[in-house]
Amino acid sequence: SAINFLERLCLTWMFFFMMCVAERTYKQRFLFAKLFSHITSARKARKYEIPHFRLKKVENIKIWLSLRSYLKRRGPQRSVDVVVSSIFLLALSIAFICCAQVLKGHKTFLNAAYNWEFLIWEAALLLFLLRLASLGSETNKKYSNISILLTEQINLYLKMEKKPNKKEQLSLVNNVLKLSTKLLKELDTPFRLYGLTMNPLIYNITRVVILSAVSGVVSDLLGFNIRV
């Protein structure tokens, strides 16, 4: 029993240590995204002591897009995504097991000690996933903030009225901004769940398996069939 307890303790510590590393990486990504969103604002750039430039030239737009791409790739990517996907898959498996146990006998579900252990693990994993999902969602909002490009387009239109002699040059910059807006919309991956990068297989398993299990539990408890 002592060896079994020590093994569980060590495995639990290792697993939660990896989750803390993943959370730290997500915090760094959010910080980079937050500072990146302040680059085009003179007031915020001065407040956070970061460089500032406006997207009024084609060269500036190229630098802005290159910097965005560099910051999104900076730091560990694949290893952290593997850890997050593993956490999500483990939480999904525990939820499926709990749903199966409830369907087997919901009155005696809490009588078994291992079911309480499953519930504690599920609660801990869900807390970490909610934290990572919150950070990932906020990071995506910062990087996918199209309002920055729209604001620069409005500024260009106002400059065209004040400086008609530079209308051709400003029109070129405006066209590049429009193409950049379309590019940012196309770059968003479809396999994301509240900011978490998901493997396509896990994404499809989530949509099919867990929804079916939850549907079966709700149907069993409420007494009527629910189709998801």
UniProtKB/TrEMBL annotation:
This is PHTF1 factor. Keywords: Membrane, Transmembrane, Transmembrane helix. It comes from Nothoprocta pentlandii. The chain crosses the membrane at residues 6-26, 82-103, 115-133. The keyword Membrane applies. GO terms for cellular component: endoplasmic reticulum. The gene is Phtf1. InterPro entries: PHTF1/2 (IPR039775). The keyword Transmembrane applies.
